[in-house]
Design goal:
This is Zwei Ig domain protein zig-8 isoform X5. Helix content is 10%, strand content 42%. The protein has 326 residues and is mainly beta.
Length: 326
């Protein structure tokens, strides 16, 4: 549980209200936050924040500014910052001028909010679970420069997720000429699909590769393992994600040197579509895949039977065991 204490407010040279605040619980008193309450942005103010030099921090302008999320699903609002240095990122909700987060700390009792941060890419993502109409509006990703730099994202909450079974199937091909099934492409309904259908079997110590395909390019994809978001910066290491975007989005998860703990349910969760899942089994030895497992079991059983016959013949050799059997 965290809170903020408002110290003072004033107007800056541009007429915008500036507040000084510090932490109450969980944050040292020495950390002061200079949060600027900017007006709802127009296209002119958005363009103003995009000018930058080679050294100063700036936002990636290719990150979507308009995000749609289905009611009851999870929304992901992202900004990507280059040349950030030791500066601090804050998320602001403009509807009530509420400070949602500073860094990775959230300043709200609403447990639906969570900050996802990937040090390798400079991404700062605000995750909002179980969104409803009240969550609609403009959100600002702010960097504590002088003057403050902001990146604005408009969240729109749309109706209930449509039933994909009512839409026709479509097919697409990639470089390997393998066809993959995709639902609702013609109807322009977002749909996610994991290329590896059914259960997957991988041998211990090998590399796990999972590909998730989404029939749109304006959504973000997140990977989960047994309900927990996959952390690329974990001490385990060896986890990478490669994203390809064209008219579709393909996100490929690579996990090197798999262990038994890597077994379980893997879910690809888009920000505006139903999730797709598969189950991975990491097993010892070279026998993997449902067919290979059966073959290994068959030969193991055959070897066991032959061993019993050999032992039986060895015990009965003095009694005149048939040579054709022994």
């Amino acid at each position: 549980m965290y809170g903020l204490r408002l110290l003072r407010s004033r107007r800056n040279s541009r007429g915008n209200k500036v507040a000084m605040a510090s932490g109450i619980i969980g944050i040292p008193d020495s950390l002061d936050l200079n949060v600027e309450y900017l007006p709802i942005p127009t296209h002119a103010t958005i363009t103003e924040h995009e000018g930058h030099s080679a050294e100063e921090p700036y936002f990636d302008p290719t990150v979507p500014r308009d995000v749609n999320a289905f009611r009851g699903k999870t929304a992901y609002l992202s900004c990507r910052i280059y040349n950030m240095g030791n500066r601090t990122v804050s998320w602001i909700r403009h509807a009530d001028v509420h400070i949602i987060s500073v860094g990775t700390y959230t300043y709200t009792s609403d447990q639906r909010y969570f900050i996802l941060h990937d040090n390798t890419s400079g991404d700062w993502t605000l995750q909002i679970k179980w969104v409803s109409a009240k969550d609609e509006g403009t959100y600002g990703c702010q960097l504590n420069t002088q003057p403050i730099k902001s990146y604005y994202i408009m969240l729109t909450v749309v109706g209930k997720m449509p039933d994909q079974s009512t839409y026709p199937e479509s097919w697409w091909e990639k470089e390997n000429n393998l066809q993959h099934r995709m639902l609702a492409d013609v109807a322009n309904v977002p749909a996610a699909y994991i290329a590896n259908e059914g259960d997957m079997y991988v041998s211990l110590g090998s590399t796990l590769n999972l590909s998730c395909i989404l029939n749109t390019s304006d959504s973000q994809l997140f990977w989960y393992h047994d309900g927990e978001i996959i952390n690329y910066d974990s001490l385990r290491g060896g986890i990478t994600i490669i994203v390809e975007k064209s008219n579709i989005t393909v996100s490929t998860l690579h996990i090197k040197n798999t262990s038994i703990e890597d077994s379980g349910n893997y879910t690809c969760s888009p920000s505006n579509a139903n999730s797709a899942s598969t189950v991975v089994h990491v097993i010892k030895g070279e026998c993997f895949g449902s067919l290979i497992v059966f073959v290994c079991f068959f030969f193991s059983f055959l070897f066991f039977i032959l061993t019993l016959i050999y032992l039986k013949c060895s015990e009965s050799v003095d009694e005149g065991c048939d040579a054709s059997v022994c």
